[in-house]
């Protein structure tokens, strides 16, 4: 992270700067599309968004990648302990954890509700014991905590102009997650999980056992097509919320919307062959979205200012 970003965010303590840098590294390494979108934000807001991503990614690593030598029960114990320490740190107003130090600072600066983090940790614990979901309401319990609350956490930093922005942020967060589920059916099976509602699969004559054959039959393709329609419905609902953000924040979220939801376009392009191919948005397409957005974002900052950086002076 550039010193300019940290200075613009009014972050000067060396340990705090190192924590924000650790979060940025997690973002850059594991969320390349998301990271690209954050560069469209005013410099003084980027560190805070990196902190939120760092928290989510680190918790996800505990569940999936932290150590292959740990059992699910041991991972769960680790996750519960880490999450409780984080919640305790929020109460104290500071943390000594290399990631949580920046996250606690972000939460306090932007008055982000603690309930969002409680819901997130609940969904991470679900991943250790739940391997399939009977229907969409059951899946939504997981998706709310794993994805919807990420959008809700970000909204204060993006500065909404109307309360409706929160509902639309939930829609977009869920759309992102569901797009990933469509793309990652095979990878999720490798982890022993199915994130497509079983009753909706059954409506197309598809069972979990059918998915585990890893063949994109016509029935499987129809089932994926149904899931893609939901992604697009949620994406469309979310679009009005982008206009309810500070002008300097809009291009970041618009670029993220186009690129993340564009995953399902790529699934269609590979004819739903998600077991043998990985659908990804080409670099060419990322640049087509990012470069014009960069110009628009710069113009918005010149016209409206960067928005209110907590601890500094407000613009709107």
Keyword list:
Farnesyl Diphosphate Synthase
Summarize the model shown.
With 316 residues, this protein is mainly alpha-helical. The protein has helices at residues 3-8, 14-30, 32-38, 46-64, 72-92, 100-110, 114-126, 136-158, 164-183, 185-190, 198-202, 208-212, 218-242, 247-269, 283-304.
Topology of this structure?
Blueprint: H1 3-8, H2 14-30, H3 32-38, H4 46-64, H5 72-92, H6 100-110, H7 114-126, H8 136-158, H9 164-183, H10 185-190, H11 198-202, H12 208-212, H13 218-242, H14 247-269, H15 283-304
Domain module tally: 2
Give me the CATH fold name of the largest domain: Farnesyl Diphosphate Synthase
SS-derived structural category: mainly alpha
Low-confidence stretches: 311-316
**Rg, Å, rounded:** 20 Å
Number of strands: 0
- Please tally the helical runs, counting DSSP H or I stretches of 4 or more residues: 15
What share of residues are in beta strands?
under 5%
Explain what you see.
There is one protein chain. 71% of the residues lie in helices and 0% in strands. The protein has two domains: 1-113, Farnesyl Diphosphate Synthase (Orthogonal Bundle), CATH 1.10.600.10; 130-316, Farnesyl Diphosphate Synthase. Residues 311-316 have low confidence and may be disordered. It has 316 residues and is mostly helical. The chain is globular, with a radius of gyration of 20 Å.
